[in-house]
Design goal:
4-stranded antiparallel beta sheet; 9 helices; disordered N terminus; 6-stranded mixed beta sheet; globular; alpha/beta
Length: 281
């Protein structure tokens, strides 16, 4: 990676105030002490042929504003089902989910769509970028759905790409970018509507170990700016970069504990970049 495209160092990245547009959408002052997410006794059933699959079995937890939480577990443990419910992409069969003080079950279809577009940012294992569009155009997509003006879309997309260290690559198409750069475009796209919550589903799953550190450095820096992040991963070493680990097994929450000594991805990435300052990743 060229130095001009690298994420800023931990201090400048975390304290940058380029724009309110890409700052987390904060809950009002009365709600600052409240959890952002409250999940109580959630169950989820799926009907697969003649079999009724019990995917989630009585999950209860809270997530406070500003937390960085890893949801970890093997395939089939229920973590992706849980993420879909948290992201308002699916509803629980039983139990309650409260987001920013509101019961999600009471929201209309239109309200849920607005929540997904404005309150929650999504990052996935597959970058889901339009191959013929530039990085800037890819980042603009959520703002088109939100009805923002062209001028504001262009301003916010530039700022978001600068925030994730891609200020010099705005007009590059996905094929001209490395895997890590493509995932940073996806992160920038998730930020442009100033979400309160970023949901990252296996964001390093398609990346090598070095590039995974790059992406975790970006996520840590965003968390330091106040963004709440929930990251789904099956990799224990990736979970070590977060503040808290929630472990699922067979649809049950079996462990919920703080990470005593989180790894510093920003320091690790800076050290790796110094070793090979002229390489492009």
């Amino acid at each position: 990676m060229n130095s001009k495209d690298a994420p800023q160092d931990a201090t400048s990245f975390a304290t940058s105030e380029r724009s309110q547009a890409t700052s987390p959408r904060m809950v009002n002052a009365d709600n600052q002490e409240r959890p952002l997410i409250v999940v109580h006794d959630i169950h989820k059933f799926y009907q697969v042929g003649q079999t009724r699959l019990h995917a989630l079995r009585g999950i209860s937890l809270e997530v406070s504003p500003g937390e960085f939480v890893a949801v970890r577990g093997p395939s089939g443990s229920g973590k992706s089902t849980f993420m879909n419910i948290i992201g308002c992409l699916d509803r629980p069969t039983q139990g309650s989910y409260e987001l920013v003080g509101r019961q999600v079950s009471q929201m209309s279809t239109r309200e849920l769509a607005r929540v997904r577009n404005r309150l929650i940012g999504f990052v996935f294992q597959g970058f889901n970028l339009l191959s013929r569009a530039s990085a800037r155009r890819n980042v603009e997509l959520p703002m088109i759905y939100a009805g923002l003006t062209r001028e504001l879309r262009e301003q916010r997309s530039r700022e978001a790409l600068q925030l994730v260290g891609l200020g010099a690559r705005m007009d590059h198409k996905p094929a001209q970018l490395s895997g890590g750069q493509q995932q940073r475009v996806a992160i920038a796209r998730a930020l442009v509507n100033s979400p309160s919550l970023l949901l990252a589903d296996e964001p390093t799953g398609n990346l090598d170990s070095r590039t995974s550190i790059e992406i975790m450095a970006v996520l840590q820096a965003l968390n330091q700016r106040g963004l709440t992040i929930i990251l789904v991963t099956h990799e224990p070493d990736i979970a070590e970069y977060t503040m808290r680990q929630v472990v699922f097994r067979d649809g049950c929450l079996v462990r919920d504990e703080p990470v005593s000594h989180p790894r510093d991805a920003q320091a690790e990435w800076a050290a790796l970049s110094l070793q090979n300052p002229d390489e492009d990743y």
